[in-house]
Amino acid sequence: MAEEISYADFDRVDIRVGTIIEASPFPEARKPAFKLVIDFGPDIGMKRSSAQITVHYTPESLIGRQVLGVVNFPPRQIGPFRSEVLTLGFADEKGAIVLAAVEQPVPNGRKMM
Questions:
Q1: pLDDT digits over 27-67, tens only?
Q2: How far apart are the C-alpha atoms of 91 and 25, rounded to whole Å?
Q3: pLDDT at position 113, please?
Q4: CB atoms within 10 A of CB 21
């Protein structure tokens, strides 16, 4: 378990729900990954993310899927791609990432409470 933090610390991490509208292979990445464009609603807009989720997903299976992302980390340059959002997931028993998601549809851009 990580070091204990306060609720104020947690509240600084802006986790939002968004819908993947584009997904494509990212052959320039060092580890297998996809380039995603995620719609986080009218207030945040479209954001790009590089996600190492190629074991359990195909680009086609990702379109329309709602995912969780941290929208207030600084962007990271990953090769020729600027990743603006950290798409959240969990490692399975073999270390492959399974996306974190909502159980029921919610409006894009809603903040995790």
A1: 999 999 999 999 999 999 999 999 999 999 999 999 999 99
A2: 20
A3: 87
A4: 15
Rounded CA separation 78/6 (Å): 31
In whole angstroms, give the CA distance from residue 111 to residue 41: 11
Q: Taking the CA of residue 80 as centre, how many other CA atoms within 13 Å lie in the half-sphere pointing to its CB? A: 3
Contact 88, 68 (CB under 8 A): yes
Cβ–Cβ < 8 Å for 47, 84: yes
pTM: 0.95
- Distances in whole angstroms, Cα of residue 17 to Cα of each of 1, 47, 99, 100, 104: 25, 12, 12, 10, 11
Work out the number of other CB atoms within 10 angstroms of the CB of residue 105: 9
Number of helical (H) and strand (E) elements in the chain, helices listed first: 3, 9
